[in-house]
Amino acid sequence: MKEKKNAKYNLEKKRIMFLQFGLIFSFVLVLTAFEYEVPFDEPKDIVVEVLDDVDMLIPITYREPERPKEPPKIKKIELLTPLLVDNEEEGIDYEPEDSFDNPDDEVPLVVKEDIEEYVEETPFAVVEHMPVFNPDKNDNYKQGNMDLFRTLQTSVKYPIVAQESCIQGKVYVRFVVTKSGDISNIEITRSVDPILDNEVIRVLKSLPKFKPGLQRLKPVPVYYSAFVNFRLQ
């Protein structure tokens, strides 16, 4: 059996009445808020002190112009009377001598030997044909570069002093491959320790010759860079 709501307690019939009461109450609350006066204190009288015009004026001062300085007095120079000298002395005849040699004499020709001046060429960083390490074994720059790194890594001897001191790292080096293929101007660009640097320089000096770099089919000096990694096992 379904439960039925009692019609006496049904609030749906009184919904309009409640809505009207709500609107009336809201309207009255708004009117009250507008009509409410907030009490506040009356402002006090502000007294402004009037300063005299004389006190407000700042006296203006003017700088007196500087008087022109008097020009320095020029001292008069007294000229001495000229002293006349008699150049013609008795018994002395002056004959001017020519400081040059006799123009009729033959001047010996001095032949200078040709001296060849050595002009140091600036090494190139990149050329058409880069140097090739160990050309008897390698055909191009890439193969030679890989062979150079392997040779450096296997040829260096890790100093015992550096191992005991736990010194390790990469030593970067730069050198010049001359026009004849020799190694010169060895320079450590990033050092780890002088002991390791000297070992790398020693190995570089013992390397075989390079095939020199070519620029327009002409041998030129070229910069070459490499590094050796010292690492504790």
Please sum up the structure shown.
This protein has 233 residues and is α+β, with helices and mostly antiparallel strands.
Could you characterize the architecture of this molecule?
The protein has 233 residues and is α+β, with helices and mostly antiparallel strands. It has a domain at 132-230: TonB (TolA/TonB C-terminal domain). Helix content is 24%, strand content 15%. The protein is built from 5 helices and 7 strands; from the N terminus they run ααβααββαββββ. A 3-stranded antiparallel β-sheet has the order 3-2-7. The radius of gyration is 55 Å and the shape is flat. The two termini are 94 Å apart. The relative contact order is 0.12. Keywords: Cell inner membrane, Cell membrane, Membrane, Protein transport, Transmembrane, Transmembrane helix, Transport. Belongs to the TonB family. It is a single-pass membrane protein.
SSE order and pairing:
Blueprint: H1 15-35, H2 53-56, E1 132-133, H3 141-155, H4 160-164, E2 169-177, E3 183-190, H5 194-205, E4 210-211, E5 213-215, E6 218-220, E7 222-230
Antiparallel strand pairs: 1-4, 2-3, 2-7, 5-6
Supply the key terms.
single chain, 233 residues, alpha+beta, TolA/TonB C-terminal domain, three-stranded antiparallel sheet, two-stranded antiparallel sheet, 5 helices, 7 strands, 24% helix, transmembrane helix, Protein TonB, transport
